Amino acid sequence: MTADEQENQDVVAMILKDHRRMEDLFRRMRSVEADRAGALATFSALLIAHGEAEEAEVYSALKRFKNVDDDEVEHGAEEHAEGNEALLALLEVSEEEGSDTWDARLEDLSKAVSHHLDEEERTILNGARENVPAERRAELGRAFLRERERQLAADCGSIENVRAIVRG
Q: In terms of pTM, does the model score above 0.85?
């Protein structure tokens, strides 16, 4: 496998790409000129698929590497749960996009997710980049992508599925 192929499949690069997409979707959800409901539906599917794939395929594998902080990996999973709860609160708003309640729940979601993205990038992903060989990061990237795609195909962002995840 060439270095370019490994870079394209690097789990760290894939996770970062999803993070940038989430930030873009937050901008769209805040914009009165955008399709806020569409952006929320896309965001919901991406957040759930991304988090479930990280927990199923990436986090447990990273715990096996020296100098990847196990406590940060555990904390990352806790932050996924917080983000999922904030997402459900927004999905359950009965008023239309842009109402005071909707905007407040969007900001709660944005704070929870943005905090997680920042922390994960500074701790877990930097640790993975420094301590996990490129070939292993590519393997993890393929596994992450497979699980992420499986989640997306199963309509993981539906309010029913988000409820099931949050309520266990």
A: yes
Average pLDDT on 134-157 reads 97
- The Cα–Cα gap between 6 and 136 comes to 9
What are the start-end ranges of the H helices in the chain?
3-9, 11-30, 36-53, 60-62, 70-91, 100-120, 126-131, 134-153, 159-167
CA torsion sign for 126, 127, 131, 135 is negative
The residue among 80, 108, 74 whose CA lies nearest residue 18 is: 80
* Other residues' Cβ atoms within 10 Å of the Cβ of residue 77: 13
Angle at 144 between CA 24 and CA 47, to 5 degrees: 35
What is the helix (H) or strand (E) element at residue 107, kind and residue range? helix 100-120
DSSP 130: H
The dihedral sign for the CA sequence 28, 59, 16, 153: negative
Q: Which of 31-40, 56-65, 75-84, 127-136 has the lowest mean pLDDT?
A: 56-65
C-alpha dihedral, 37 to 162 to 113 to 107, nearest 10°: 50
Collapsed DSSP state (helix, strand, coil) of residue 15: helix
